[in-house]
Amino acid sequence: MYRISKYVNVAMLCMLSCAYADQTIAEIGEGENKHSFSVGVEANFLSRTAFNYTDVNATNANAGKYPQDSFAYTSMKIFGDYKWRGLSASVGYFGGVAYTYVGWYPFMDDLNTGIRSGKAVEFHRFLFYRAFVGYDDDNWFVRAGRFVVEDDDWLKSTAQGAEVIYKRENFLIKAYALSHLTTAFGAWVWDFVTDATPTGIYHLAGQYNYSMKNSEDSAPLLDFKIRPFIYLVPSYYVMPGFSARFSYAVSSNIKLNTYAIFTYESFLSDANKAKLLYPLVPTGENAASLYIQQGATLFNKYDVSIGFYKNFGNFNAIFGRYGNPANVSIYDGSFFASVWLNDFLAKDSQSILLNASTSFFDKRMLVAGFYRFTWNDRSIENTAGVIVSYNLTQNITFRGILAWYLDTTKAGNNARFWIPVSQVPDALRGPITNVNTPTVHDDRSYFMFNIIVRI
After folding, report:
1. Which one of 40, 54, 181, 395 counts the least CB within 10 Å of its CB?
2. Average pLDDT of 152-160?
3. How far apart are CA 318 and CA 195, in angstroms?
4. Which of 370, 371, 329 is closest to 349 using CA atoms?
5. Gap between the Cα atoms of 252 and 248, Å rounded
6. Which residues of 277-306 are buried (b: 16+ CB within 10 A; e: fewer)?
7. pTM recorded for the entire structure
8. How many Å apart are CA 134 and CA 292, to the nearest integer?
9. What are the pLDDT digits (tens) for 183-230?
């Protein structure tokens, strides 16, 4: 049950960021000596209904035809905070129950038993998802324990460890050392695991900021940030890179925004001892990724952007599970046989990304459209959809995502592997015996619905 729920959770990353209701329940003292106590509660329901109910049998698996998975879950997060003179402490507990009602999960220990029929699975999780002590002022941000990693290009995860950020007007320095990560996007929280951090992950970054303001307006006319960084998992991989953000106000009604990030990944001596590279691709080959996005804000109401994402070689797919700058694969993720059917992070893949959004009713409703075109040696993927989010009250939010998702797997390939079937060792093919598969067109469209209630 552990492996099943672990990989289903990756599909749950499609959640957009959630805010908590934070109610102050007591304040003792005044001014700098004030002790503040607050609590927050968030209840969450999310479901994804896939429109593809492809039968799971040996014939379809050998042809590379798989259904999109569906699931539903309810969860609750309860937390309490204490603050005094910049010092803080927080404890939060998570409880959730999930149910997969369509889908099939043949993991490695099932390969010898052949194809299993689809089966509904219930699983649950209860844990302290946050528990930290910290310090905050105008220059310092410090966390130790379990907390959400702040201000990071790659990691968008709850982590266990310590983080320190020191900032001044024109620069900042950031460092953290983490022992565990958890895929904690949105409402679901999974165990703190070491898949991407078998020896811990260490990060150091510096950032330089430059702003030019219009003398008649306090809003920046031009804003520029550049950040060199490095990630290290000792004995496994090292990832240096840099990111840059640039915004320019062309006029009072037009603002241009540019974001770029390049990351180089060098695999070290023990990289082949962990599932850092999968499924079935060579280890020890250095890799890289590049993402460029050009956006514009029009009339302070409409946001549009076009982006390009490129993997050079086999950039670390496991690391991408904990957050990726392009922020797109989180919608379409689906796992079968420990393999992510989405090719956004696949070896040598590239993607074009289009996004547009606007708001209504004093920004209580957000409507967004998105499109992804991904291609590589294995497949071609198209995803187009719409996202609608509505705040019924300050504490109640409804969200829906309707996506058309078409995958075309090229002849000689199977969606279960990122390399041609003929290159997969016989012992690792499991029930897949056909090496001459035809071109397969799979419809993996889905609808997601989400309710969030904050107390």
Report:
1. 395
2. 83
3. 7
4. 329
5. 11
6. bbbebeeeeebbbbbbbebebeeeeebebe
7. 0.83
8. 34
9. 655 556 667 776 667 888 999 999 999 988 776 666 668 899 999 999
- Say if residues 224 and 251 touch (Cβ distance below 8 Å): no
- List C-alpha distances in Å: 263 to 158, 242, 311, 410: 22, 7, 10, 29
Q: Would you say how long the chain is, in residues?
A: 455
Helix (H, G, I), strand (E, B) or coil at 286: coil
CA count, 13 A, side-chain hemisphere, 148: 13
In this structure, the dihedral spanned by the alpha carbons of residues 114, 116, 122 and 127, taken in order and rounded to 10 degrees, is 20
Distance (Å, rounded) from C-alpha 231 to C-alpha 223?
26
- DSSP letters spanning 393-432: ETTEEEEEEEEEEEEEEPTT--TT-SS-GGGS-GGG-TT-
Q: How many CB atoms lie within 10 A of CB 166?
A: 13
With CA atoms as reference, report the closest residue to 121 among 267, 210, 4.
Answer: 4
pLDDT at 98: 74
Q: Which residue has the tokens 């080959």?
A: 285
